[in-house]
Amino acid sequence: MGPMLRSMKFLEERLSKNEGYAFGGKFTIADVSILTVTDMVMSGEFDGIPPSYLEQFDELSRHQATVPKKVTVLAEYRKIYPY
Predict the structure, then answer these.
(1) Could you give phi then psi for residue 50, rounded to 5 degrees?
(2) How many other CB atoms sit within 10 Å of the CB of residue 15?
(3) Which listed site, 5, 8, 44, 73, has its alpha carbon 20 to 30 Å from 53?
(4) What is the total count of domains within the chain?
């Protein structure tokens, strides 16, 4: 198992154990960090990793799709990374 797959599985497990968030079942700065990574993957910024890579991870895909809609502070972030 490569480092990307290992990392994504780790994050997937964290999200599933914490009601869709990184820690304690509520939004934290860690969720912004996860969102940054998932946006980079979806934009194709990782060489050799297709934008569709996250489709195999239900929790990460859900997190990437829903966290920006729940948290207004991410409105400015979405202007930079609209993925």
Answers:
(1) -70, 150
(2) 21
(3) 73
(4) 1
